[in-house]
Write a structure and sequence with these properties.
With 242 residues, this protein is mainly alpha-helical. The protein is 76% helix and 2% strand. A two-stranded antiparallel ribbon has the order 1-2. The longest helix is centred in the middle third of the chain and has 32 residues. The radius of gyration is 19 Å and the shape is globular.
Length: 242
Amino acid sequence: MNSTDTTLGTAGGGTDRRRWFALAIVMTAAFMDLVDVTIVNIAIPSIQREAGASFSQIQWITAGYALAFAAGLITGGRLGDIHGRKRLFLVGIGGFTVASALCGLAVNPEMLVASRFLQGGMAALMVPQVLSIVHATFPAHERGKVFGLFGAVVGLGAVSGPLLGALLTEWNLFGWEWRSIFLINLPVGVAGLILGSRFITESKAPRALKLDLVGVALVTLGLLMLLYPLIRGRELDWPVWG
């Protein structure tokens, strides 16, 4: 992402109305990602009771999202530079919505764990595009104000997850219990997908670097080697690391 980024498309793509609509869409997506990092923590007792998840499965449900997100974040940003930020954002938010539906409809803990990994991976495609789209959409003299707004959204999203998780679990909407914390993403994701395809202007980096697939594999392997003993070691009676 740099000042020589190319912006594709015309037909009013730079009008004030379109720019602020695009900002609202990507900010909502960033907020949704931040909420999903922590919202599941409050619903753990309900998941254990209703889904019969074991201790290690609960750990994977909470850590799997963060692991997939961390492993794919740099790759997601690089793919946006190469193939277009709007395109990757739409793929990410569409995949995130589908993964949220799979989480909410999970028939067993294993499906929920797999869906959380998918959800984190899709967030890794979606979130890196947010600041890149802002950079490509707003002129330099407006970015300070926009980035300040983004910081406020980040702070709000970080503290809203536990609160929303508690409210949704307590209200037990439609008898969904813990499933509502995932299914609530569906209308937001569908709206973001439809509106994003209309209001976000495509942009790419003119000299994007190639993907470092070996580096991605090594980072993913390293994270797995770190997290697996922490999550499974207790159940497998492995010795505590000294």
